[in-house]
Amino acid sequence: MSHHTGLVLDFGGVLTTPLLPAVLDFEKREGLVEGACITALYLDEEGTRRTHELECGAITQGQWNEAAAARLGVAPENLMGRIFADLRPEPLIISAAAAARRAGIKVGILSNSVGLAPWNLYDGYDLDDQYDAVVISEHHGTRKPDPEIFKAVLEPLDLPAEQCVFVDDTADYLPPAAELGFAAVHAKAPQQTISQLEDLLGVPLAEEV
Ligand SMILES: [Mg+2]
């Protein structure tokens, strides 16, 4: 098998710690029933529609905060920032991505946006300097799993999908990527993801201890 020369990484839940524990902590802090947030915002039809609009840049994070706060019965101020307050950078994946670049692999970020203000999920990650391409869905008017947004990251990487590995913690986004030709990796645990990437890219990525 010839090795891949490009790597496309999702952001939330891949370059960061997992989303679900952060959301569960938020629910606890705000006195909500466990699962209230997931149900109201990501499973409910109206909530899902709003989130998709936000990802596509059709509504602002402020508008999303207002609508979501009303559904949850919590204060709207910086709601998205409060929901994800506990998210942290995932150092193993971040250093693996840096190791991949040093080894000559082109690395791009492909992220469904949660809006950029008042709370910027990407703050402090220095994406423009650390990666070869950065595609944030709201700047493209569409969202994963639309094939168009995968093409939007392939173009600046100047690679065909067949040369690239795509990593996402959301399983639903993997089949459309695979259909385009990407090798698709479901991010579950950083160590496991890194060893899968080492096989696909043919370069060592784990931090030396
Ligand atoms: Mg994700």
From TrEMBL:
UniProt KW keywords: Hydrolase
SUPFAM superfamilies assigned: HAD-like
Gene Ontology terms for molecular function: hydrolase activity
InterPro entries recorded: ACAD10-like, HAD-like_sf, HAD-SF_hydro_IA, HAD_sf, PGP-like_dom2
Transmembrane segments: none
Pfam families: Hydrolase (PF00702)
Full protein name: HAD-IA family hydrolase
Origin species: Streptomyces iconiensis
Lineage start: Bacteria, Bacillati, Actinomycetota, Actinomycetes, Kitasatosporales
